[in-house]
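User: For my dataset I need records formatted as: sequence, then structure tokens, nothing else. Please produce one.
Assistant:
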Amino acid sequence: MTETAIADIRPGRRSAAEVAAAFADAAPRLSRTQALVEAERCLYCYDAPCIQACPTGIDVPSFIRRIAEDNLRGAARAILTANPLGGTCARACPTEVLCEQACVRTAQQAKPVEIGALQRYAVDSVMDRPVTALFTRAAATGRRIAVVGAGPAGLACAFELARRGHEVVIHDARPAAGGLNEYGLAAYKMAGGFAQAELNWLLGIGGITLQLDWQLQTAAQLQALRDGFDAVFLAVGLSRTPRLGIPGEALAGVRDAVDFIAELRQAGDLAALPVGRRVVVVGGGMTAIDAAVQSKLLGAETVHMVYRRGPETMGASKSEQHWAQTRGVAIHHHLAPLEIVGQGGHASAVRFARSGGGDVTYAADTVLRAIGQKLDETVLTAAGLTLQAGRVVADADGRTGVPRLFAGGDCRAGGRDLTVEAVEDGKRAAAALHADLGA
């Protein structure tokens, strides 16, 4: 029997029209009437708990009041001043465990104000105007800052530095900027090429140059950046995916979920993307959800998402779990992977141990690892940085203890790996850099 016959992985499981419909915008923009009705539900609380729950400190009542007044430019400016990537965060931020969880309407009516949807409504309204219609760039300072990583933290830092008049060069290993926004989020969350549209909008502030296909591989490279720039901000993210450490992991058909999502996000024709008939995703976070759901949307017949602990400790929010389950993904708990069974050199099943004893096996043509990511530590430790639990030690403003070297985003110790927290890291580091440079 040939390997092709064993592994049922192929493109075209659904028609182009079916795939287009399946990957349509997960939460389309509110209409004007919907937005006005939802905005009227806000109580405009004094010392509003939703502000405290937002890592970037968006003045939620203020921007919602502006929506109610039909002042969308004012609403968008209030959002983007606090969070320059407010459009992405409105789409991908787990608002149900942040601002919306804190909304007083939750206790009163068991339904919070739809803050995320209102935020998207406001921000999207200004995306067809130049960024300079909302923000102006300060006079040039003559200072140059290198940013390593073009994800949320790096983009936020670069934008805030550029607004203050600095010149910024963003270095990134990928052929396109955007980091997680471009390569790591489900396509139905970032429909319509929004990641690149937002990136281009931010670059319109001026003073930001992209240097792509540039990979940080040695401490000497980092030292060269420190020598050639007034300061460096590291926003390198987590680039290494750990292995499961079980037999059969080298079989064909076993891959990292982040690579699958990145391939999907860059595919010109989703219907032509190969997908297994039977998919098993190992992990319980947002990456696992995105990989599992998108496998199903591409036409996989069965998708099992398997997590070693209980639902209460899953990294994916309850709403994301519900989203997956209502789209045909079976979620299993308290199962630890034992081995990947192979046939003809290709994965054919995954065997799991039950926490209460015994085991269970799920057939699989494709096995996707989604058990978290790690920092590539070698270069950073050689550069004199201190690491804790595999991440860079830095204060709340990104100072690492190495002169003129800052760090933020997922690579910084202490965060929750949220896009919105990465944005706040970049924003705070930009303010601290500006102050330290005395510009």
